[in-house]
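Our consortium's second objective concerns turning raw sequence data into structural hypotheses that experimental partners can test. To show how far this objective has progressed, the report includes one record in full. It was chosen at random from the queue rather than selected for favorable results. The single chain below, 360 residues long, was entered without modification.
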Amino acid sequence: MLARAGLRAGTGLGRLQCSQQLKHSAWLAPAPQRLNSGLPVNIGVLFVPQQEAWVVERMGKFHRILEPGLNFLIPLLDRIRYVQSLKEIVINVPEQSAVTLDNVTLQIDGVLYLRVMDPYKASYGVEDPEYAVTQLAQTTMRSELGKLSLDRVFRERESLNASIVDAINQASDCWGIRCLRYEIKDIHVPPRVKESMQMQVEAERRKRATVLESEGTRESAINVAEGQKQAQILASEAEKTEQINKAAGEANAMLVKARAKAEAIQLLAAALAQQHGSAAASLSVAEQYVSAFSKLAKDSNTVLLPANTGDVTNMVAQALGIYTTLTKPQGKTQEELPQAQEEPQPPATEVLQAEQAGSS
């Protein structure tokens, strides 16, 4: 039992001493250097690839930078300390938390594009340039997001990237590194905030739909009113044109009738000037006078008749007397005119009013 206890105590003491030795050796060990593993060995003649810069130290002090192509070094004295790639480097910026101006926590990550511009500064200006630039990008991202609200973060994504690039270039100038661009990959919003944003988007879309519908109704009403206005204008213009055409037609008809009547009068005068023309005119007047009496009481129920309506001979003689009076030549006295054989018309007339009732 005692032997086992002693063995266990010795074992535990040995483990403690071993752990202490490991800690002491780790503390005394030099820090890991960037790009120390896999460095080219100086054999005197070296071939440097294109788009690479090899930093050479001679007896621990910077000597020169090897250009692409054939180079010669002194073995044992010269040592290749750093190998810098002059190509564009792509670095993934890890996801990080950032708080916006309106106190919304976002999870955001990005991609950083770098290029080594000065191999000397990149080798001796900072221990790990890529790590330093990554940390600088994260801190700059938090700082820039703190100046913007959540809505502006999504709207001003390009300006946010440009601000981060400018801030990195100002700090990394002494490191010999140039930041070409920075791109935000993903922006993760908390679930509750995302639901609120979705509700806001739906409300905005409903608002736009309502506004568009009202604008459509307004445009429709305006179009209908404009159509009615144009229709009324066209109708009035058509009516105006119709009245003008009708007036012109009536005027032309009156002129044509007047010309025809003038020609008829001329022909009638020529006919009356011939032999027995007066007798023919007297006969025509008598026929028209008798025909006029036959049309009485056809258009109206109120008729004025002379007292001697039944005496046809007297009526014809009266008509001929009126014609003779109208056609007597000027310059002759009343005695020279032929005496018409007619009796004087009685002054009294009989008014026959036969008003018929509309309905029996």
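The partners drew two points from this record. Confidence is low (pLDDT under 50) at residues 1-37, 331-360. Helices lie at 2-28, 119-124, 129-145, 150-155, 157-172, 191-273, 277-294, 312-326. Both points have been shared with the crystallography group to help prioritize constructs.
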